[in-house]
Amino acid sequence: MPKPFFFNAGDKAVILLHSFSGTSNDQRLMGRMLERNNYSAYAPMFKGHGTNNPIDILDSGGPDEWWKQVNESVQFLKNHGKNDIYIFGLSLGAIFATKAVEEIPEIKAGGVFGSPILSNDFSNIRDAFMTYSKKVYEIKEVSETDKYADLRIIDSKIDAMLVNIRRTTNSVSDNLAEIKKPYFIGQGTRDKMVDPKAAEKVASIVGTRDFHQYDAGHVLTINRAHKELEGDVLNFLENIEDRNA
After folding, report:
1. If you ran DSSP here, which 8-state letter would residue 11 be given?
2. CA-to-CA dists, residue 194 to 46, 52, 182, angstroms
3. Strand, helix or coil at 110?
4. What Pfam family is a match for this entry (predicted)?
5. What's residue 245's pLDDT?
6. Burial of residue 1 (number of CB atoms within 10 Å: 0-12, 13-18, 19+)
7. Alpha-carbon torsion 96, 38, 199, 189, what sign?
């Protein structure tokens, strides 16, 4: 089963947040790249994730729990002597990475990959979660009766969760113009999960943005764009002091 990871490689540390139906493995390639370049990398697992039952995400998780985990991640790194802390998030993680840039003083800079912030339609996220859930139950080889019973439960609960996520997203988007820290935006032009144009809107609002587009789909940290993304993130981090000047 996937687990959180901490690559303790340098005084500067990066928190890496995963997606709604993903795990810390979404960010493992990014974490290893950072480790090779003497950055420590910490990827927590959002509560409810990393199990073999998607219902756990809806029953155990939620924006309040996940935001608490982001704050705990900052404290975890401080406890390990890290004072230069940065944060990046993929998809769902992008919401909380941005909130951290806005609200947590210890976060010096951050960014997003495939962010749903300012994306008007969450129906694709709903559809993708239902598809993900079906695949999980097929892999588990549960009976058809049990599979459809669980899928009915998920179908009855997913909308309430998305409303809660949307509420958090709206509060984060209201403060975008106040961001003064360096802010990285990575967006796939072939993204089918969130509207690629939403990233352009965010870039037009955040004055400190470093905006990059990739000829790729949603999960930039592991798809065809991941090496290009990693290079851009490293360049962004290496030039933080210049951006703050």
Report:
1. S
2. 20, 25, 23
3. strand
4. Hydrolase_4
5. 45
6. exposed
7. negative
Coil/strand/helix, residue 109: strand
* Element housing 161 (H / E): helix 144-173
pTM: 0.96
Strand partners, 100: none
Structural domains in the chain plus CATH codes:
5-240 (3.40.50.1820)
Handedness of CA 215, 218, 224, 229 (dihedral sign): positive
CB–CB of 123/115 below 8 Å? no
Contact 5, 42 (CB under 8 A): yes
- 3-class secondary structure per residue, 25-74: HHHHHHHHHHHHCCCEEEECCCCCCCCCCCHHHHHHCCHHHHHHHHHHHH
C-alpha distances (whole Å) from 162 to each of 113, 114, 166, 194, 232 are 19, 17, 6, 14, 31
Token pair in block for residue 84: 């230069």
Instruction: Name residue 184's amino acid.
Output: F
pLDDT by residue (tens digit) across 100-119? 999 999 999 999 999 999 98
Torsion angle of C-alpha atoms 139, 18, 196, 126, degrees rounded to 10: 50
Residues forming the active site? 91, 191, 218
Rounded to the nearest integer, the mean pLDDT of the chain is 95
